[in-house]
């Protein structure tokens, strides 16, 4: 089968506005854009940092505030099933990441959830103390390992980092039987590099290593097959490609085969087998609910739950197809502008090796990013020199790609981006 | 000075509807009720489980959704100062609990926050392993200690429970120099008993014990003086008396004198001294921000932040005065109904020993509670036999107390509460 992205990569290097307009006309996901509230005259290429707001969220928030909380008050835990929301939302995500029911639940933040699964995994690996990860992994993942290590002591838990630029073969060599846990983020937050989940999981498990995948930059962005890859644990983020809102609740996946053996230390009342019996001894719930801790943040979780309904009729393979095509068009357009030659793509070109973003190194990446934002193209910057462009096929059009690259080229050609106002640093960059 | 509650207790045992109407007319907090959206024909006595919704929350949610998230998107971290929301909200709570600036921050759930301060406190107490608490403490507090103990091993961390019914003298005897941490909830979730924070903190510290207070049932309900009592650490809940919404973010207080020494293990990127430098080594932030972990749940935290503004012009002593008066009237009215004699008050009668709720034992407490709810009086039930009535002076009127007790008396006198429909158990009780 010749897919659109395959066709584009092999035959279509000259990207024109009419071609992009034609691709929009043929896009089976084109109507999805209407499911979102988007600012006018803006191309939003930062959905990998904060997803756009689905219209369903505003409707749901209205229900939760004007009916559930304010009118039905405490009764809503039963009558509006707030108590099951972590499971309900979790199952919607499970469908997107290839997890059979009963293995994925929404709760807390990605960082807190990593602490839970990492502690669980370490307890399952007596005699092994090393957590292996990449130096370029998203820092909070590394910090949480360091936090656990500081609590357990170096003799029980150590973080070993290998250079993020290693190729797969070198990474594989590090998978020795001294490693307790392999902790990897499927798509690198800087480069957008996509790791081979199937192969790395298999190689690690062959050495008795438990594998934790962080899906922050892949859940909702591309097809994932957690069960088929025999993954042990995964965590992920609700506010990027899943569009759950700023700081949306995160999620935990734990393979059903581990549910009996695990014991996670953030054992709050929501993870108890019978929370409302108010027993003074902790008895973990059966199944995935044992990973819950405190009372779920219902306002934030309701927003995420509503946002996930946008995916109800979306096939992830279709989404991926459009993501790759959009990315291809973006980079081809960059190549078509001589003035953009100083931009160095650090995202792998092969589709199988990249997620749903493009990242370019440039000495003035910060100023370029600020200039783009000022001109209605929302990109983001990652220190020290990366311009990062998130590709979110649910609400990006092919013509948006044209608009973005044209704007970028104009800012560079005119030296507009060198104006001092674009060098002013924000608190959050 | 003769306060209202003092006057009522000593002179006014015959509570009549006209008296209550008169008290409403004289109530300096009467107008605060207009700050809330409340269901019609309902007396809400469960604000100690889920606070009612302030009108400001609906306005704020509208801003956050229709402007901040959907229009300004990622820029809102700077332009709407989302990044500082944990501090901004925290300082609003600090004022209510007697904490000078820089010591209180909003984040995560009460359970997760307890894990942070408990781990911190244990690391500050080498050679001591026992966490002392009451068997009747809210279970999630006990479960989190058990979780930490399971991680650290019994030789490093042990939970010791003493009977919740002990008097202060007996509790004091348990404060030996083998104890690392004393973990107490200021107001008992079942009985409403209020512990003496000043005295217990002082006695514990005299033995080298660090003290953690859980303020879930006291923050926003009565005056608290964390700094004046020299408290070490505290945690609390945003969704009860603070009205932050279901599962609202919780908070952490850590006395400034401990900020350098502590090291908390849930060391996520928001607790880093420079989160956006994406350094691979954790370096804790100075001050209270070191207790942050993951990305804050902005939708839920914005609701809490707006809800806290209701307290902006409220003096906690005034709130306490009304709380005690409402509680006094409630119990006096119960005593005035012969049919309510089977209800046994387990809340201490002395104002200095009770929080802002009343709790009665009754063999059919569950059915009574369900019958009350069906008749527009929202109370709650705590296993095995407690009918619990939360007193929230910001939105309860004196006449509501009349309505509640009259309804209760009618349900009992008519045996209505014995009908089978009131015995049907809910998932959340």
TrEMBL record, chains A, B:
Residues holding pyridoxal 5'-phosphate: 110-111, 138-141, 185, 214, 217, 239, 269, 295
Top EC class of this enzyme: hydrolase
An example molecular function term from Gene Ontology annotations: kynureninase activity
Cofactor: pyridoxal 5'-phosphate
The enzyme's E.C. designation: 3.7.1.3
Domain of life: Bacteria
Pathway: Cofactor biosynthesis; NAD(+) biosynthesis; quinolinate from L-kynurenine: step 2/3; Amino-acid degradation; L-kynurenine degradation; L-alanine and anthranilate from L-kynurenine: step 1/1
Positions of post-translational N6-(pyridoxal phosphate)lysine modification: 240
Pfam hit, one: KYNU_C
Stretches assigned to coiled coil: none
Keyword vocabulary terms for this entry: Hydrolase, Pyridine nucleotide biosynthesis, Pyridoxal phosphate
Catalytic activity: L-kynurenine + H2O = anthranilate + L-alanine + H(+); 3-hydroxy-L-kynurenine + H2O = 3-hydroxyanthranilate + L-alanine + H(+)
Function: Catalyzes the cleavage of L-kynurenine (L-Kyn) and L-3-hydroxykynurenine (L-3OHKyn) into anthranilic acid (AA) and 3-hydroxyanthranilic acid (3-OHAA), respectively.
Family: Belongs to the kynureninase family.
Subunit description: Homodimer.
Protein name, UniProt field: Kynureninase
Record organism: Arsukibacterium indicum
